[in-house]
């Protein structure tokens, strides 16, 4: 790429393109990706490949690119489908990629989850799941039951109804309080390694909140076992068992938002294998990071009850629902995942993250170090200096994207041991750089 053209690319980006959670008047620095392969990215501060640096992607492109980049089988799946057709409407039509993907999801998810809605993105999947729950209650003749019970510390997306079940005080959507529908928030579950007494105390509080509001609740929605963008907080499976018990006691549907946790990230293919929800949301890694696609999977009972509501149909239908390109690459991504030893890779990566980050525990300014599956987290006492941390991580050989008080990694499953160790070194460098910058 010509140097002038490369510089113009970044200049135009800075003046005209919004990036996630950034200001247009004081934009944060972005780097151009000029190449990607395996677990690696080539990043340039000028936009030119000539000065690009090669780094390990510690983020899996926000947790989606679990097989890395330019995977030959996923590349081929997209190319083959392009030669057939790239998109057709799903209203009144169907096609082999959608049917094959639906069959795969029914086979892979827990028994009984056998009705599949193919959505555009994770946030849309949550919108659809919430709508399913509300229509389910209407189908039962309970239209007044239209609030949701969830827990503090959660995050479910950036569109309006997912924002409404995201923590309204400690989360990213606090400014919308008073605008969004108001739901019911129980205390955040205790930490993953909590003592029995802590779990019992939380269970008592959760049950009390549910009982107080049972008459107006339609369902419960949570990120199971690991809260993601709300704080990367793992918690005990016993809490999910309590949620299942409460849902059954009060006639609520239990929704698991596994958009971040699905497809092996926690060490389980789906957390729903441990406790079965009534509605399951999937996204992110569904296509191996190639295209935007999500799915909502539910039971026959839920589907039939929704059909008994006054509309007689589920009231949702996106333009790009069941997009053939996305479905085709999702099918191949699932084949790549299930035919490889993903569990061993997740365990291997998790062990290296856990052991490598442990020395940061107790460092002045570090509040906690934690891990679950192929996730490693360092929580600081103060907000991360993102620029200092990012620069230090890249200098150490990895791409990280800290947020809030967290420096963390969710690496691609294809990372070698050396690449995981590079990510660990980058987290150390980012942590120290942020602590020095904020001292």
From TrEMBL:
SUPFAM superfamilies: PLP-dependent transferases. The record marks 21 as: Participates in the substrate recognition with KAPA and in a stacking interaction with the adenine ring of SAM. Keywords: Aminotransferase, Biotin biosynthesis, Cytoplasm, Pyridoxal phosphate, S-adenosyl-L-methionine, Transferase. The modification N6-(pyridoxal phosphate)lysine is found at residue 284. One of its GO terms (molecular function) is transaminase activity. The keyword Transferase applies. PROSITE patterns: AA_TRANSFER_CLASS_3. Its EC number is 2.6.1.62. Pathway: Cofactor biosynthesis; biotin biosynthesis; 7,8-diaminononanoate from 8-amino-7-oxononanoate (SAM route): step 1/1. The keyword Secreted does not apply. Its cofactor is pyridoxal 5'-phosphate. It catalyses: (8S)-8-amino-7-oxononanoate + S-adenosyl-L-methionine = S-adenosyl-4-methylsulfanyl-2-oxobutanoate + (7R,8S)-7,8-diammoniononanoate. It comes from the Bacteria. Substrate binds at residues 62, 155, 284, 317, 401. It is found in: Cytoplasm. Belongs to the class-III pyridoxal-phosphate-dependent aminotransferase family. BioA subfamily. PANTHER family: ADENOSYLMETHIONINE-8-AMINO-7-OXONONANOATE AMINOTRANSFERASE (PTHR42684:SF17). Homodimer. Catalyzes the transfer of the alpha-amino group from S-adenosyl-L-methionine (SAM) to 7-keto-8-aminopelargonic acid (KAPA) to form 7,8-diaminopelargonic acid (DAPA). It is the only aminotransferase known to utilize SAM as an amino donor. This is Adenosylmethionine-8-amino-7-oxononanoate aminotransferase. The lineage of its organism: Bacteria, Bacillati, Actinomycetota, Actinomycetes, Propionibacteriales. The gene is bioA.
């Amino acid at each position: 790429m010509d140097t002038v053209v490369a510089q113009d690319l970044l200049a135009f980006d800075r003046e005209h393109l919004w990036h996630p959670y950034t200001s247009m008047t004081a934009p944060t620095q972005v780097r151009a990706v000029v190449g990607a392969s395996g677990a690696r990215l080539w990043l340039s501060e000028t936009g030119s490949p000539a000065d690009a640096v090669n780094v390990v992607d510690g983020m899996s492109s926000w947790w989606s690119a679990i097989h890395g980049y330019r995977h030959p089988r996923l590349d081929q799946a997209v190319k083959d489908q392009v030669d057939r057709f790239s998109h057709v409407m799903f209203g009144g039509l169907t096609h082999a990629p959608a049917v094959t993907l639906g069959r795969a999801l029914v086979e892979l998810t827990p028994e009984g989850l056998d009705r599949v809605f193919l959505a555009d993105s994770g946030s849309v999947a949550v919108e659809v799941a919430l709508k399913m729950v509300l229509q389910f209650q209407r189908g039962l003749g309970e239209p007044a039951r239209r609030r949701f019970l969830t827990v503090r510390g959660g995050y479910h997306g950036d569109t309006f109804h997912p924002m409404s079940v995201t923590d309204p005080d400690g989360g990213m959507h606090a400014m919308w309080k008073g605008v969004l529908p108001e739901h019911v928030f129980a205390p955040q579950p205790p930490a993953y390694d909590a003592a029995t007494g802590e779990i019992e105390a939380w269970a008592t509080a959760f049950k009390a909140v549910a009982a107080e509001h049972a008459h107006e609740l339609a369902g419960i929605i949570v990120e199971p076992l690991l809260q993601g963008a709300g704080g990367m907080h793992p918690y005990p499976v016993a809490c999910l068992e309590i949620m299942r018990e409460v849902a059954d006691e009060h006639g609520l549907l239990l929704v698991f938002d596994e958009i971040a946790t699905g497809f092996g990230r926690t060490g389980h293919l789906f957390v729903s294998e441990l406790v079965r929800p009534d509605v399951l949301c999937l996204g992110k890694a569904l296509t191996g990071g190639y295209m935007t696609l999500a799915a909502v999977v539910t039971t026959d009972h839920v589907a039939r009850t929704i059909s008994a509501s006054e509309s007689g149909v589920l009231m949702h239908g996106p333009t790009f629902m069941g997009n053939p390109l996305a479905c085709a690459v999702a099918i191949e991504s699932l084949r790549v995942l299930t035919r490889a030893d993903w569990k061993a890779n997740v365990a291997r990566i998790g062990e290296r993250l856990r052991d490598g980050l442990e020395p940061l525990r107790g460092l002045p300014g570090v509040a906690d170090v934690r891990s679950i599956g192929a996730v490693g987290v360092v929580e600081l006492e103060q907000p991360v200096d993102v620029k200092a941390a990012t620069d230090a991580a890249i200098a150490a050989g990895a791409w990280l994207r800290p947020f809030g008080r967290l420096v963390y990694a969710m690496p691609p499953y294809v990372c070698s041991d050396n690449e995981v160790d590079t990510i660990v070194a980058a987290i150390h460098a980012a942590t120290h750089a942020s602590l020095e910058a904020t001292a």
